[in-house]
Amino acid sequence: METETNRIEAFSDGMFAIAITLLILEIKVPSSDPGSLTKALLRQWPSYFAFLLSFVYIGVMWMNHHRMFNHIRRSNDTLLVLNLLLLLGVTAVPFPTAVLAANLGTPDQRTAALFYNGVFVVIAIFFNVLWRYAVSHQLLDKSLESSAALISRQYAVGPWMYALCMVLAFVDARASLALNVALAIFFALPPHLVRRS
Amino acid sequence: METETNRIEAFSDGMFAIAITLLILEIKVPSSDPGSLTKALLRQWPSYFAFLLSFVYIGVMWMNHHRMFNHIRRSNDTLLVLNLLLLLGVTAVPFPTAVLAANLGTPDQRTAALFYNGVFVVIAIFFNVLWRYAVSHQLLDKSLESSAALISRQYAVGPWMYALCMVLAFVDARASLALNVALAIFFALPPHLVRRS
Amino acid sequence: METETNRIEAFSDGMFAIAITLLILEIKVPSSDPGSLTKALLRQWPSYFAFLLSFVYIGVMWMNHHRMFNHIRRSNDTLLVLNLLLLLGVTAVPFPTAVLAANLGTPDQRTAALFYNGVFVVIAIFFNVLWRYAVSHQLLDKSLESSAALISRQYAVGPWMYALCMVLAFVDARASLALNVALAIFFALPPHLVRRS
Amino acid sequence: METETNRIEAFSDGMFAIAITLLILEIKVPSSDPGSLTKALLRQWPSYFAFLLSFVYIGVMWMNHHRMFNHIRRSNDTLLVLNLLLLLGVTAVPFPTAVLAANLGTPDQRTAALFYNGVFVVIAIFFNVLWRYAVSHQLLDKSLESSAALISRQYAVGPWMYALCMVLAFVDARASLALNVALAIFFALPPHLVRRS
């Protein structure tokens, strides 16, 4: 059945690659008065911010998905459905990203941060559902049981981190976004630390 | 010739993955008065509804396509053309999806539901044409003949289900969409039941 | 070096799949008065026409590309560049398609038909350049020499067919488009005939 | 670990293929007075220019990425992250391309050329970072050490070439773009020379 998970991985990779590449379409060419392109480009910082944040998050999700399927050796219909549920979340990311970009620095900043992180809470839950299903239905490679236990503990943290961003957004939207950035840096920079944390 | 169907599958997977991921581009960032983003996001429920429905339908079609090509062992030019015809239907889905989203809750709701389900009737017919061609031209793996017979019976039902949605749309558009939702849940939730129904 | 052409094929397949799937994005949801969605959908026939035509042409190009690389066994840098040149043409197709759709039935119909077929003349020439390079630099599988000669003769016809559509467009734009449709049907329907013609 | 780099390559190829194909979406159908489509199409030369330039640059980056991973035999988490950083740059290309197309021939031409080339300076630096990491952490195939040394020397030139375009843009935007075209032709036409330069 290894071929089976290979095709799931290839299909999932395709959807991750497309979702992450579509993010750039949400950054529009600014219309500007003649001679003021620099200012117009700089004024679009919320779009760049949201693009970078979502790029890192989708990139990290791809690496986690990759690692997960390194452990999964067998597949069945339910796993296919749970994986599609996860991919549903991933492909939706360009929309909350665009909502965040459009509302940073406006009175709706808090709502946008709540919505953005809410989508990631759901995706992180889907990650856990998929992984726990694979664990409890013995779809894993037996020889990797110790690192599987590590993954279980790590993934369980995910939804809480994004939920914390949501709670923070009620207090202060900027603090919430600062935590988002910290998470992205934590995810992107020290892979050895993330793996052992 | 196994390599041959492998490349068809890879190309088809690519098109399924792109079509399903492009669906999100039809959901636009709402323009809203300051402070009313929540309301503006909620007002877009038809877009989310249509996105989810089409995501499930394309996802299920991908799983069915996958299963079909698990049975098909040989390929020829006509199979390539029939598969492209099926993919023509799949790649078109973002358009009826957007039409449905734009017209839910308006006087054109019925027309949109008819158009939406009409496209799926055509796709379901293309599925049957492809499968029957493979069966009648001995392109299947002989060892899987019994499950092939099961597939033949299941696929034959597909066009009628979407046609029933069309008929219902003449009576009541909401009833038609409720049946669409029921179909999506039936497809997505109990894969064991679907396989044995 | 078989791995080498495998990766070229996979990359090319990806670009074919994306270009063909992006075509649907050029069909926009019509804005219509309440209750007149049917009429509004029907009024968009030029978009559907152009979509179907380009879908068939890209689909056929993919099958031809596939067949070509079944014969090519070795690769080098120049082949990579010539293949990218061909893919440049393929990825450009959504633009002339949209131009054609926007101008069917207007005084600019002829210009649009000329532009549309002009792009395909260029693509067909790129096909021949790539193929002739592979033939003349001994990159082909020796055991397939007879079918390679057949391909050489078939591909040489391609640019002339689209050029004929261009010439016809000067006489009558509708006649030119009718020939386009005839070509598409000829390509799509009888693969055995196409192969032996 | 060869499988490991295979999946990185497949994912990277997917993102290259999508980014290069999305470029065409930035070329919009011109709105024109009846009978003046030819003029309207010609007036869009900046869009075609920017499309062709970016197509060549992404195509060349894909070939270089390809060559780089022909030498890389082992992978680790840091390599994954550095590769995603490079892909971040690649997927961003449609945006500076559209900015360039929108501002060619306007007073903002210089700013657009600076921004465009600035993005490529960053991408070229990411290329070097990835490659140097692979070299210094012994992830390369030992048998290819001599051609690896050649690659190191070639890649080191990349950022300087785009930086030179930036410097030129301060003097004269058109000279800068002429150098961009010369670079593209140099990259695209003589692969043997590029390899040995």
Highlighted features:
mainly alpha; 9 helices; homotetramer; 197 residues
Short account of what is shown:
Four copies of one chain form a homotetramer. Chain A is an all-alpha fold and 197 residues long.
Detailed description of the structure:
4 copies of one chain form a homotetramer. By secondary structure, the first copy, chain A, is mainly alpha-helical. In chain A, 80% of the residues lie in helices and 0% in strands. In chain A, helix 1 packs parallel to helix 4 (77-92), helix 3 (45-71) runs antiparallel to helix 5 and helix 7 runs antiparallel to helix 8 (173-188). The longest helix of chain A has 28 residues, at 109-136. Chain A is elongated, with a radius of gyration of 18 Å. Chain A starts with a helix and ends with a helix. The mean pLDDT of chain A is 88. Chain B binds chain C through residues 7, 10-11, 14-15, 18-19, 22, 25, 76-78, 80-81, 84, 87-88, 91-95, 98-99, 102-103, 106-108, 111-112, 115, and chain C through 9-10, 13-14, 16-18, 20-25, 27, 29-30, 32, 34-38, 41, 51-52, 55, 59, 62-63, 66, 188-189, 191-192, 195.
